Amino acid sequence: xxxxxxxxxxMFVQEKEAVTLDCTYDTSDPSYGLFWYKQPxxxxxxxxxxxxxxxxxxxxxxxxxxxFQKARKSANLVISASQxxxxxxxxxxxxxxxxIFGKGTRLHILP
Amino acid sequence: xxxxxxxxxxxxxxxxxxxxxxxxPISGHATLYWYRQILGQGPELLVQFQDESVVDDSQLPKxxxxxxxxxxVDSTLKIQPAExxxxxxxxxxxxxxxxxxxxxxxxxxxxxxxx
Lengths: 111, 115
Known about the structure:
The complex is a heterodimer of chains A (111) and B (115). Chain A is built from no helices and 12 strands. Chain A is an all-beta fold. The relative contact order of chain A is 0.34. Chain B is an all-beta fold. In chain B, strands 2, 4, 5, 6, 9, 10 and 11 form a 7-stranded mixed β-sheet that branches. In chain B, strands 1-3-8-7 form a 4-stranded antiparallel β-sheet, with no helix packed on it. Chain B is built from no helices and 11 strands. Chain B has strands spanning 5-7, 10-13, 19-24, 31-37, 44-50, 53-56, 65-68, 75-79, 88-97, 102-106, 110-114.
């Protein structure tokens, strides 16, 4: 069965440090996609990054990179040089025949 | 950039009343999703459409919830009768694919409060 797990309910990180948000998944479908979304307190869902299951290289988008370890079924989000504006909820999601989301990690960036 | 449109933005209703939410996806997006999000939790998939057909509604409480996408464009989600536990944000999303990328676009959501 399709499943996605985020084990960190909350994290506190000092500004300018790098952050890694954990995500593991499970699916029997060989073709799938992995996403990360940011949800600030205003509520909108902001797309950050996408990784396809057949992609050989880790996806990167500016300060965001996805550490894709297929054998371990993990898709961790790495944010380099964190900023105060990065404080938000972060959701990992997976698509095989439908798109489901994890429970999220609340990230707090400290000045 | 094109957006997913949702209305209303807020809805307050009393329990046992009927409510309806509307969504217009980005033009050309065949796949449309309705999610329910309780504060502090991840979005929970209620129903997925491919064009006008329901692909997945396994998590939709069918005794009170219904969803339709009659012409394969805009969609309506209805709750009748509403219960206190239905208070949540209802998010609509549509998706696009390319050979190397995929993205789910969300609307601003409808915040439902059931009194």
